[in-house]
Design goal:
By secondary structure, the protein is of the alpha/beta class. About 45% of the residues lie in helices and about 10% in strands. The mean pLDDT is about 95.
Length: about 300
Amino acid sequence: MLYSTVPATEKRRRLRERLAAGELLQFPGAFNPLSARLIERKGFDGVYISGAVLSADLGLPDIGLTTLTEVATRGQQIARMTDLPAIIDADTGFGEPMNVARTIQTLEDAGVAGAHIEDQVNPKRCGHLDGKAVVDADTAIKRIRAAVDARRDPDFLIMARTDIRAVDGLDAAIDRAKALVDAGADAIFPEAMRDLGEFEAMASALGVPVLANMTEFGKSELFSSAQLRDAGVAIVIWPVSLLRIAMGAAGRALDTLTEDGHLTSKLGEMQHRADLYDLIDYEQYNHFDQDIFNFQIDTPGR
């Protein structure tokens, strides 16, 4: 009932243990707290909280318009609804190194298990769009050092994302990733890898976990979990997939409503009320009302 009973520190510790064991961890992207509970119910390893999804949820493009407060608030709402660890997209850290430090501590307080900081310039762009620009190595390193220095829970995962592959090529991406690991990054998110060979080269060159972003309609091919595991990838995310599917279904339902005047033909595609009530643990709330919050109001005049 209400929120997860697993402390954030425990979620972080479990994530660290599983990464150290060399498993491939699968993190679908949650677009709201309820979808995070569904991800857990379906047996996945963790929840990813995408900056692109948070922006889209506000009706905004993914170009760095969201604030730390907005991101941390939504991150907390999602993370507290699941026993799974959540990794959140912290963009460029919302400012200079001191801002990055504050970002990490704020996200720790929000209960997520880790965050990634990227090396794009501000304003940033979606990682799979053309026209990106990255900061110099010194600036990127300072961001990660600030994040590591600010961290209070040693199990909070600090991941460095680099977008330099699309700008200067694979060799530059490997060099940048090595420098970010030396700066203290616990894991590397190499954005917009072109093929499995590039993922394998990145994983082979580094001594830390590597994340693969399997976003649809982007620069990377959509590889299977088994293919990515064989390439040495440690974490795979599908950041926007559930939102895309949900919005696609919503659009089709609205078209049907316009054409037919009702949604009878769509009932088989909907989540049943019983399944929703089960997912939100409705029965436990009833027990609470009956066993704890059970009272009678005095009748006037008594």
